[in-house]
Amino acid sequence: MIRRLxxxxxxxxxxLAALALLVPSSAFAHVEQGQATGFFTGLQHPWSGLxxxxxxxxxxxWGAQLGNPAIWLLPITFPMVMSLGALMxxxxxxxxxxxxxxxxxxxxLGTMVVGEVRPRMIVAALLVGIFAIFHGHAHGTExxxxxxxxxxxxxxxxxxxxxxxxxxxxxxxxxxxxGKVIVRGAGALIAGMGITFLWRALI
Length: 203
Fold this sequence. Notes:
There is one protein chain. By secondary structure, the protein is mainly alpha-helical. The chain has one domain. Helix content is 72%, strand content 0%. Helix 4 packs across helix 8, helix 5 runs antiparallel to helix 8 (149-171) and helix 6 packs antiparallel against helix 7 (121-140). The protein is globular.
């Protein structure tokens, strides 16, 4: 089963490699207001902030740890709910503490991976969904007036799915003893970076 899953995911490696070429050089900063202009900008946007990248990879890592059905349910829940958050941003609906919520997503999701926490599936999906709203809102507010919100949204939803896929592929090594240490270490790194993001959001 594991071999079939890995084999299926390897089919997406060329796509992921192509998308990686689209990542802007300023990988540690969000795209500035007014620069999001369509599908390809939406495709780039989730890669443009390390806080987004790490949180989305953490979703994939955690899903891989939890196994079925979380391995596919969490990566589906996140983009679906994220779209609602993006709609809020596109409509100009305020979401107080958005950057703090994004930072907390890295801290808490990273901590879930470190502890291999196994809550009930509804709890895991709800947690992922709550954080997805903050990430989606941040993406949605980057769209300037007069541009295609639909194409932009399609782009960042696709990119988000690819980041989840990367997390899942990395997380599959947890089936081996050494792999468990690696995955939990990755979770610790994500949580640690989340603390940095939170500090920056608060100052």
